[in-house]
Amino acid sequence: MRVFCALNERILPSKVEFTYLRSILNFRDFHFNENLQDSLDSMGFENPTPIQSLAIPIIQSGKDIIACAQTGTGKTAAFVLPVIDRLSKTPSDETKALIVAPTRELAMQIDQSIQGLSYFTSTSSIAIYGGGDGVVFEKEKKALTQGANIIIATPGRLLAHLNMGYVKFDTLEFLILDEADRMLDMGFVDDILKIVTFIPQKRQTLMFSATMPEKIRQLAKRLLNSPEEVSIAISKPAEGVEQRAYLAYDKQKNYLIEALLKEADYSSVIIFVGTKIKARELEKELRKMKMKALSIHSDLEQSERENVLMQFRSRQIQILVATDILSRGIDIDDIGLVINYEVPHDAEDYVHRVGRTARAETKGVAITFINEHFQHRFKKIEDLIGYEVKKYPLPEGFDLGPAYEPLAKKSNRSNSRPRHQGAKGNKKPFFSKKAHSNNPKKD
C-alpha cells in the first residue's frame, strides 16, 4: 500500500487518504503515553505536520515505512515520537532503537530533539559521531555496552565500535535511517549494509529521505519488509520563502551581499557555497568588509564547528558561510536570509538550502546569485519547483550583470548580443559609483 500526500500541488490524494490526513488534527489523537504527552504540552506542541500525521500511525502499527519529505517539515519528530512512545509504554534499560544519520551535526540535533521530547519520560539516548578525545570514545563505549535506549550515530563512528566486538544489539527493535539519500551521496551505503549485519533481522525499519531516486528504492528493497510509503511535497520550497535571483558576475557577488544586507535588517544569514575552500575565502573577504562572519566546513574540528554554531545561534555573528554540510538536518531558528552564492549543482539541493529559512510556517528570504556559467542549472531548478523565480535588477550603483540566457549555446552567446557592462575586460567589472537606470518595474 502506498500513502501519497501532495502539498502545494494540484493533484489531490484519494478521498480515503485525504480524510485520514485531516482526522489527525491534534497530537492527542495519537494516544501517546501520558508522560510523552506532558512533554509535548510543555513545549507547546499541539498540531502535527502532514508528515507526522501520516507517518506516526504507520509506525505505531509496527509496519516498516519509507518516507520522503523535504527539510523543515518535522520529519525528525515523525520518527522520534512513536519510538519514545513505544519505549515509554514498555520501559527497559536495554538499547531498543538505532538511528543512523550522515553527519555529526544531524546526529547531535536528533539527540537534542529526543532529550526535549522525552523530558518527562525515562527514555535515554546518546549521540555517537566521532571527533573528540579518548574520554569521549570511552563514554560512547559505556553507553553502547551498558545500554542507552536510543543510539544516534554516524556510520563510520558506529562501525569503529562495532568492529571491536563489545557492542550488542540483540534487543534492538527499531532501525531508523535519516537523510538516507544524503548518506548514499556521501558513500555510506557499504557502511549501512555492514551495520545491518550486527542487528536483528526481526525489527521495524524506518527510512526517511528528502528525495527518492532509484538507488534509494533499491536500498529500501534490501532493508525494509513490505514498507508503507509516504511522500510529502519533496520539490516545493516552503510557502513562507520569498525567492529571488540576481544575475551577477562573480566579482560582483561580495559587494552585492553588502548592498543587500544594508537594504534590510537580517539578524541571521546563511550563505551557501560549493566548496570548503570557497567557504574559507568568503569568510575572509566578508570580515575584511567589516561583516561579522564565520565559516563552517569539514576541515574544522568538531569543537570548532560547535563553537561556530553556538556563536551563530546566540547572534554573536550575523553571517554563517557554509558548505552543504548545513543544507540538511540542522535546526537553527529564525534564519531571515539564505543566499546561494553559487547555483547549486543539483536542483533538489536548492530546495534543501532555501529550507533553512521560513521554518515552522515562518517567513524568510532566499536569494540565488546566477553568473553567466550556471544559468542552465537554475533553469533546472525552476523546472523542478514548477515556476519561474523572479530575477531582480542589481542595486543602484552596480554595472549590469549577465543576461539570463539559460538555453543559449555558449559558442553563440558572444555573437548573439552585445556584452553587458561588467563583462570580462571592463576596467571595473564588478562595481561602479555610476548609477544605472535599472527599473524593477521593467524586470
Protein described:
The structure is a single chain. This protein is of the alpha/beta class and about 450 residues long. The chain has two domains: about 230 residues, Rossmann fold, CATH 3.40.50.300; about 200 residues, 3-Layer(aba) Sandwich (Rossmann fold). About 35% of the residues lie in helices and about 15% in strands. The chain has 16 helices and 15 strands. The strands form two sheets. An eight-stranded parallel beta sheet has the order 1-8-2-7-6-3-5-4, sandwiched between helices. A seven-stranded parallel beta sheet has the order 11-12-10-13-14-9-15, sandwiched between helices. Strand 4, helix 6 and strand 5 form a beta-alpha-beta unit. Helix 4 crosses helix 5. The radius of gyration is 24 Å and the shape is globular. The C terminus is likely disordered.
Strand portion, in percent? 15-25%
Total separate domains = 2
- With strands numbered from the N-terminus, the spatial order across the biggest sheet is 1-8-2-7-6-3-5-4
CATH class of the largest domain: Alpha Beta
Tally of DSSP β-strands: 15
**Rough shape?**
globular
Nearest-integer average pLDDT: 82
Return the CATH architecture of the largest domain: 3-Layer(aba) Sandwich
Structural class: alpha/beta
Largest sheet: 8 strands, parallel
Tell me the distance between the termini: 47 Å
> Nearest-angstrom radius of gyration?
24 Å
Low-confidence stretches: 6-22, 410-443
Q: Helix coverage percent of residues? A: 25-40%
CATH H-level homologous superfamily name of the largest domain:
P-loop containing nucleotide triphosphate hydrolases
* SS summary, helix count: 16
Per the CATH scheme, the topology name of the largest domain is Rossmann fold
